[in-house]
Amino acid sequence: MPVPHLRRTSQASRSSMEDSPASGEDEVVEPEQGNVLSHIISQLRPGADLSRVVLPTFILEPRSMLERITNFMAHPETLLPMSEIEDPVERFVSVVKFYLSGWHIKPQGVKKPLNPILGETFTCYWDYPDGTRAYYISEQTSHHPPKSSYFFAAPDHKIRIDGTLKPRSKFLGNSAASIMEGIAILRLMSHGDKEKGERYILTQPNMYARGILFGKMKYELGDHSYVRCPENHLVADIEFKTKGYFSGTYNAIGGTIKNEKTGEVLYELSGLWNGEMYLKDVHTHKQDVLFDARHAKHSPPLVRPIDQQGDRESQRLWHNTVEAIVARNHILATDEKTKIEDRQRDETAKRADEGIDWHPRLFRAVQGGPGGPDEGEEDLDWIINAQIDMQNPQVATEQILSIVPIVQDSETKTTVHQSIVERKDSQTSEEEQFVDAQETS
Questions:
Q1: pTM for the full model?
Q2: Could you give the count of Cα atoms lying within 13 Å of 298 in the half-sphere of its Cβ?
Q3: Angle, nearest 10°, between helix axes 330-354 and 319-326?
Q4: Whether the predicted pLDDT of 28 surpasses 70
């Protein structure tokens, strides 16, 4: 049966058309978000099969983690100017601005993306106002422990990002934490070493779901993350502050930018990661708005029609599950999700019986250590398995497109006309937006 031409832009895309809330206390919380425990208990009956107990739909975001990572690259107005800045300190500040620009992109309430299965892939691209294009390739390179590896490139701007995200769940009484291990390496290839570029090593804050047993559920980012440029000895230590019991506010950040070699602090950071963020020069005491997430409009990526995707690509793989989540059909969503997870378990068992080791299709293990081609980048674990000449935009584009299908197959000679379709839940009034793609010859 052919898959309908339905491309999900998700709840996060809706936020690109609205102002982000100024603080977490203004965030709309769904009426049904009492707590997870009560939803589970309400399903228990004498003789009930515990394996059939379903999580409430507000826990599940209708997209895979591989797709959610693209929030990181969704503000071209912060991404594209970085390579053009000549002063190394100003350039570093621009990278910090880019790094901070994507955190406000999130669904309302507390949502958990779908866990990618082993070998799942997601690809997409962005068409920028200046006529250039960027590409994203990702693959789930490990299931236990989970590792999501990704590659991003804007060839005409000579910007490349390699990353592996390694989330680890941890329960903390009335809270659940996703400890976001792993790094990303952003390279500005028009600066620094010709082969490696000028590197910026990025880590992520941890994510917390508060109130999972009692009280209202709340999403927070917490702890320290870092942006570090080893070539220029610059580092930003950014603290995502969680609200205290009696003081503080939601979604606050603080931090400094300093020269690691001299220890000199150059700037102070403050504000709200979903509101205004400020940069203060410690010498002149002049403070400027670094980024205003309240009025920021992000750019969701473009994807191929679902019928051109393979059965292991995220949007096709999870299509039925996502449809059920959006329809708030708890039982069907669980059935569809379980089918995929059971298939993964069967595949794992079969490989074990046959003595076959699984290897990623699009990524290779990092070759680190002294003298290795990836020396100093060991924490990536996996990197795209292709040579990309980022000094030559045309060649780089050809090399990227030869790895895996990313853009629509031009041989179909079809034009895709897109229209925004909204679905509103009758009880919560929450709207989910989709792009309904209709093909014409």
A1: 0.84
A2: 32
A3: 160
A4: no
